[in-house]
Amino acid sequence: MLYHPDKHRDPELKRQAEQLFNLVHQAYEVLSDPQLRAIYDIYGKRGLDVEGWEVVERKRTPVEIREEFERLQREREERRLQQRTNPKGMISVGVDATDLFDRYEEDYKDLPGGGFPHVEINKMHISQSIEAPLTTTDTAVLSGSLSTHNGNGGGNINLALRRVTSAKGWGEVEFGAGDSHGPLLGMKIFRNLTARCFVTAQCGLQFSSRGVRPGCTTVLARHLDKNTMGYLQWRWGTQSSMNTSIVRDTKTSHFTFAMQLGIPHSFMMMSYQYKFQDDEQTKVKGSIKSGFFGTVVEYGAERKISRHSVLGATVSVGVPQGVSLKIKLNRASQTYFFPIHLTDQLLPSAVFYATVGPLIFYLAIQRLIIRPYVRAQQEQDLEKHRESSASDIARKKQEAESAVLLMQESVRRIIETEESRMGLIILNAWYGKFVTDNSRRHERAKVIDVSVPLQCLVKDSKLILTEATKTGLPGFYDPCVGEEKSLKVLYQFRGVMHQVLSPDGEALRIPKQSHRIDADT
C-alpha cells in the first residue's frame, strides 16, 4: 500500500513508487507460489537463480525440492568437472644439526673455520599429485616423487584410475614405475558394508631385479559411537603386521590408541590432542610410542596463521633416536615439512632450545610479519568487496532514499496517532558503524539516519525487529560494507526519554524499561 503508484500524485514520487512496487511484486510472486517459496526458504535468492526449476514437477514437498536443488547443483558441477585438478604436494627437507650439540672440539682445531658448527641438509623429498576427472564416476590421478638421502636418490611416477561403482564403494587400479623399485601394478577397493562399517583392500605386485614381491593390506573400520572409530589392519608382504587402533575425535579433542605386532616393528602408541575454540584454531598435542625400536615422546602445537596456512612444531625425544624438531607448514593443499635432527643423545639443553626456540621465533614472526600481513590482506579484501558491491550499494541507497520520501505522509500520520496517546515516538535513529573505543578515535563513524523508516514500522506503540541484519529493512542500506554495524535509537515513550544501542543481527523490541534514561544522568 505504501509503494502503490496510485497513492502518489507527484510525478517523481510516482516514478520512484513504481520501481519499489515492482520489487514488492516480485517478492509477492515468489512468496505466494508454494514451490518458489519453499526454494527461497531453504536456499534464499541463490536457489531461485539455479537453472532448471521450470521443468520440475510442481506440488513437491520441501524435502523433494531440496533433493531436486542438489541434483541441479550436481549437474552444474559436472559442467565444471573438466576444469578441476585438485593438486596436492609435499616438500620435505631434512636438516642435520647434530654438530650444534654433539661436536668434538679436537676435530676442528686444525680446520679453517672450525669454530662454527656445521649444519647441512642431508635428505630431501618432493611429491606432487593431480586429479583429472574423466567422467562423473571416473577419475585419473597422476602422482610422482623424488627423494635423496646423503647424495643417493631416486624417484617414481604413478598413474591411478578410480571408478565410483555405487554410493557404497569405489575401485582403483594403479600403475607405477621407478628407477629403484621397478614397475608396480596394484589394485584398491573400498566398500561400505553397513551404515557404520566399511572395509578397504589393497594388493600390489612390485617387479624388481630380485623378482616379484607381492603385498596385500586389508583394513576393517567401524563406528563405535558418534565420535569414535575402531580400525583393524592386516598387512602381508615385505613388512607383515597386524594393527588395531581406536580414534576418538570430538570438537575439543582428538585421541588415538594403537597397537601393532609385526616384522620388523611392533609397538604401542597413544596420542592426545586438545583443540582450543579460538579463531586461530590452536591445537596442542602429545604422544608416546614404545616398541622394539625404542621409545619416543613427542609434544607440540599448531596454529592457523592465515586464511589458508597452518603452522606447527613438534619436539621429538626418544631412545635411541635422540632429540629432533619438526616444523610443518600447510599452505592450502601444499605441505612443507622440515625435520631438524639436533642430537643423538638425550641432552636437556637440546630439549630446552627445541622447545623455547620455535616459540620465541613464532612470537617474533607473528608480531612483525604475520599480523601486519593478515591485517593488510583483510583491508585489501574489504576494499575489493566494496568496489565489487559499489553499484549494488548505490542502487540500494537510491531505493532507500526513495522509500524514505514515500514514507513521509504515513510517518506523519503515525506520529500524530502516537502523540495523541503518549505512545512511541522515534526522535533519532542511526544505523552503521559507531566508534566508541578511545583507541579508535581516528576512525570515522559511518552511519545513516533511519528515524523515518523506524517510525514507519511502529504499530500500536511498539517496534519489533526480528533477529536478522537490518540492511534489508525498507529505508535501510549498508553504509559500511564488511564492517560491524549497530542500530542506535533515541525514542520517547509516555513522555520519557529512552535510548538503546543494538548490534546488527540481534532482535530488538521497544519500548523497554531498561532503555530508560534517568532524568539526573
TrEMBL record:
The chain crosses the membrane at residues 346-365. PROSITE patterns: DNAJ_1 (PS00636), DNAJ_2 (PS50076). The keyword Chaperone applies. Keywords: Chaperone, Membrane, Transmembrane, Transmembrane helix. Pfam families: DnaJ, DnaJ-like_C11_C, DNAJC11_beta-barrel. Residues 1-44 form the J domain. This is DnaJ homolog subfamily C member 11 isoform X1. It comes from Salmo salar (Atlantic salmon). The gene is dcj11.
